[in-house]
Amino acid sequence: MPVVAEIVSQPCAQDLIDLKKTYEDRTEWLQTAVAGSDLVVAGRFNDRLVSGFLLKDQGDHWQLEKLQVREITRRRGVARQTIHSALKTLDFTRPIRVDLSDHPELASLFAEFGFEESGSGTYQWRP
């Protein structure tokens, strides 16, 4: 199941439907993120968005939040492929941080892509 990451800056109607399914209708943050300096990164498979995460603009770094995979495609490596594709193909010039204090089970996933622990459950990736 090859998943390709992309930045969603102008979601079409189908993209919005897919993101609502992925985030189980909790997308009140989406329009603000797309309109501002934050980035919505989504994983696409067969022309449909099946995963996503938010990169909040923190000035000197991005803060990764809201990593989510559509329920029907979970347990197939979609999150792994989305993160891998994003780091390899999207041109990030600032570090990316993620707070895993509430989800320590994801630490090995992020470590796999070069995120290093920087204390208190926070991990950072540098371009």
> What's the overall average pLDDT, rounded?
94
Strand order of the largest sheet: 1-2-3-4-5-7-6
User: Total helix count?
Assistant: 4
Query: How many β strands by DSSP?
Result: 7
Enter the CATH topology name of the domain at 4-90: Aminopeptidase
Q: Beta-sheet strand percentage?
A: 25-35%
Shape label: globular
Main sheet characteristics:
7 strands, mixed
* Proportion in helices: 25-40%
CATH class annotation of the domain at 4-90? Alpha Beta
Q: Unreliable stretches, pLDDT < 50, 5 or more residues? A: none
The second-level CATH architecture of the domain at 4-90 is 3-Layer(aba) Sandwich
Question: What's the CATH superfamily of the domain at 4-90, by name?
Answer: Gcn5-related N-acetyltransferase (GNAT)
Give me the secondary-structure category.
Answer: alpha+beta
Description:
- It contains 4 helices and 7 strands.
- The chain is an alpha+beta fold and 127 residues long.
- Strands 1-2-3-4-5-7-6 form a 7-stranded mixed β-sheet.
- A hairpin with a 2-residue loop joins β6 (116-119) and β7.
- The protein is globular and about 40 Å long.
- It starts with a strand and ends with a strand.
- The model has no long low-confidence stretch (mean pLDDT 94).
